Amino acid sequence: MKRFLLLLLVFLSPLAVKAQVPNQLVTLSSNGKYLVNSITGQPVFLTGEDGFLASLQLSNADVTTYLNDRASRGFNAIWLGVTDQLDQNNAPRDFSGNVPFDAAWFTNPDAAYWAHQDFVIQQAAALGITIFLQPSFVGNADGNVYDTPAYLASSAATVTAYGTFIGNRYKGFNNIVYVVGGDYNSAQTAVATKVADLASAIAAADPNHIITLEPCRVGTCSPANQDSVVSYGGVGSVPSYIRLNWAYDTQANVVAGCQAAFTNSSGGSFPPLMGEDWYELEHSITGFQVRQEGYWAILSGCYAGRLFGNGPIWSFNSTPSGNTSPSWQSQLSSAGSVSQQFMGQLMRSREHWLMVPDKTHAVLTAGFGSGSTLSVAARSSDGQTVIAYLSDGNATTKTINMSSIVSSSSTAIAWWYAPLTGAATLIGTFPNSGSQTFTAPSGSDWVLVIDDDAANLGAPGGGAGNNPVPSITSLNPSSATAGGPAFTLTVNGSGFISSSVVNFNGSARTTTFVSATQIKASILASDIATSGTANVTVTNPAPGGGTTPNFAFTISSSSNPVPTLASISPTSGLLGQSVALTLTGTNFISSSVVNFGSNPNTGGVVSNGGNTLTITIPAAQLNAAGTVSVTVTNPAPGGGTTGAQTFTVNNPVPSITTISPISATLNGLGFTLTVNGSNFVNGSVVNFNGTAKSTTFVSATQVTASILATDLLTIGNFPVTVSNPAPGGGTSGCDHKSAAGPRIPFSN
Question: What does the pLDDT look like over 346-389, one tens digit per residue?
Fold first, then answer.
């Protein structure tokens, strides 16, 4: 999501371990080493998420939907921005149109706006969710954006008053952790002093709650492997109100980052947290990779927990964020969301607060791999449990030093835990001595859990070690025509495992496992020979397991209708960008195919009695400017194809940022002009002083043009622009520079 840089705040004070704050969902343990719920007295593992714009972008009904879903999955922490000037729609107003301040930024807080923030935070508290509250997003590392202009324009007294307002407003809540900073460059002293004023004022007004800061991630600042402690220059320089060590790393660096955070936290009272890693659906991160980085982080030292991120969820599909699709609602059950849920269940079933990373491979002694196949392990400091995450499944055999387990019975018990489903499978018992090899059940990633058998901990994840009970949410297709051919039925739901079986009218059918939320079955032509309603169920075998309730599949007696297509909306889109297409006509069905040029697209949503069909056309199909024929086909039996509607793929409007060189000598030789910017296409033309020049397309961000000697016969300012051809397209703007000496400056 965002990239925070928060190095050294101004006012520092010595470290001190505080008495445990009562009645808090999350506070610091009495020894300062882990998080605890002071109501129940139990250690807390943070299963969190970045929901940054929830209180700004969503209606009250959507807030309730979002929070209820997260609570149902065991999420207990949400990172929330309570003000924003850039990422949300209609910034800085909330969903109801209220502004945070009725005067200058940070001053005269608006009563209705802040009452809504209170509502969201109280809703979270009722569900046992702690809010990681960000009162201000600085943004000076991105330029003069976000709250940076307000910090520069505000006095220290104004910023301090805002911090006091925040602290006083939320000191009585029991579900708050404050986060300061936000794309923050501490080298800008005028801003850094104000950020310190804000943090100090919050701490002075509210001594009850933890404050943390998100540092700069590896690759954008020095030193690498940033966390809160490093940002302050070491344990001895951390202000007393900073109580949580926030690590921030890219997917490739979470292991090194959390190992460093663990070491940096060991000298003080700062439990290490993976506050932000790379997000699902951003940076091309897949569901597997987002699950992998989560386990890498937790078992490499960030034992306090992890805040997971998903692009459409943190932004709630705001336009400025660029995460407009898929819908945030669809991502509530994404692979990353489900994996975060099951990882939380696993860690809460073991002594997560005592986990020590196996940095030297003393526990996982062989088969640990490297790079994208890296496997990592951690051991509880009392020797009760070893947890190892195996990225490459059964590709390599893993060797465990069994003496890592301390047991009064000299016996260890081992389990396989499936991070895709949360199912635990008993492997067996072993002596807690020597080495033992383990090979995962499949090529997918797995978690190996080994415990002291005498501890009687039960199955990892809190279950009984049984297969889960499956459930069905939808079928695709949901109907077929009697007498039709065999087809593949996609079953969506939850709790599916590799041995799940789809039953069609009581008969087991060949089933392919896709994920914990999807399986596919081969349905025979004989299964749909007669019209009526067929019952579809899914069965998971023992131990545990079970069969879902019947889910209806309609077998129609008539052929598929012939569709018609009256209009499409929108009728145009930009080159290389996906488009959500709404088609209006008649006789659309669930198996209708949208033909975008020569590309068939399935899986659209039919509504309005079959008169509306919506589908997302992927960016890869908008790969050439021009017109595309759009039709809809209903498959046999019956069916047919509509007449065509025309969709126009437009070239974008180009923009110039720099040119090189920026001047030339009067009567000099011709040369090649390099133009840098954005939205260039194959066909872009560079105009020099109003004349089109021979242009070479290099990339979307660069073109070159041949400038002739005859273009350099006059002193002056020569405008340089770039034109993209129709359809769409247009000409960039230009900036004029003054002439100087015998050289010919030209503008970009």
Answer: 999 999 999 999 999 999 999 999 999 999 999 999 999 999 99
More confident residue, 12 or 52: 52
Q: Taking residues 150-179, what's their average pLDDT?
A: 96
In this structure, are 388 and 424 located in the same domain?
A: yes
**Where a domain ends, among 510, 530, 556?**
556
| Same domain assignment for residues 283 and 403 | no
Kindly state whether residues 584 and 637 are assigned to the same domain.
Answer: yes
For residue 267, is it within any domain? yes
CA 409 to CA 406: how far, in whole Å? 9
pTM (2 decimals)?
A: 0.63
Q: Is the separation of the CB atoms in 708 and 680 below 8 Å?
A: no
Joined tokens for residue 31: 């020894």
- What are 428-442's pLDDT values in tens digits? 899 999 999 999 999
If one compares 237 and 679, the residue with the highest pLDDT of the two is 679
Q: Are residues 426 and 335 in the same domain?
A: no
Could you tell me which residues are beta bridge partners of residue 131? 78, 176
SS3 364: strand
| Residue 511 belongs to a domain | yes
Q: How far is CA 71 from CA 76, 310, 525, 600, 679, in A?
A: 7, 17, 43, 39, 42
Peptide bond before 742: cis, by omega within 30 degrees of 0?
no
Q: Chain-wide mean pLDDT for the chain?
A: 90
438: part of which helix (H) or strand (E)?
Answer: strand 435-438
Same domain for 388 and 287, yes or no, is no
DSSP assigned state of 683: T
3-state helix, strand, coil in the chain (%, to 5): 20, 35, 45
Instruction: Report the DSSP beta bridge partners of residue 27.
Output: 36
C-alpha 85/C-alpha 618 separation (Å) is 30
d(CA 296, CA 312): 23
pLDDT digits (tens, 9 = 90+) for 443-494: 999 999 999 999 988 899 975 555 677 889 899 999 988 888 999 999 998 8
Residue 317 Ramachandran class (φ > 0 left, ψ -120 to 50 alpha, else beta):
left
Which stretches within 384-494 are classed as H helix?
none
Instruction: Give the pLDDT band (50/70/90) at residue 12.
Output: very low
| Coil, strand or helix at 551 | strand
Which phi and psi angles does 393 have, rounded to 5°? Answer: 55, -130
Place of tokens 């635990």: 424
Separation of alpha carbons 394 and 446, rounded Å: 9
- At residue 543, the pLDDT reads 64
Cα atoms in the 13 Å half-sphere on the side-chain side of 607: 6
What DSSP state is assigned to residue 177?
Answer: E
Q: Is 658 helix (H, G, I), strand (E, B) or coil?
A: strand
Classify residue 465 by burial, with Cβ atoms within 10 Å: 0-12, 13-18, 19+: middle
- Do 432 and 576 lie in one domain? The reply is no
Tokens at residue 565, please?
Answer: 């297509």
What angle is formed at CA 443 by the lines to CA 441 and CA 446, rounded to 5 degrees? Answer: 60
Identify whether residues 267 and 386 lie together within a single domain. Answer: no
Last residue of a domain, one of 307, 322, 348: 348
Alpha-carbon torsion angle 496, 497, 503, 509, nearest 10: 130
Tokens, residue 87: 């990422």
661: domain CATH number is: 2.60.40.10
Closest CA to 533 of 607, 471, 480, 475: 480
Q: Is 458 helix (H, G, I), strand (E, B) or coil?
A: coil
What is the residue range of 410's domain? 356-455
* Tokens read off for 131: 């809010």
Number of domains comprising the chain: 5
Q: Are residues 227 and 102 in the same domain?
A: yes
Q: Give the DSSP H or E segment for 630.
A: strand 626-634
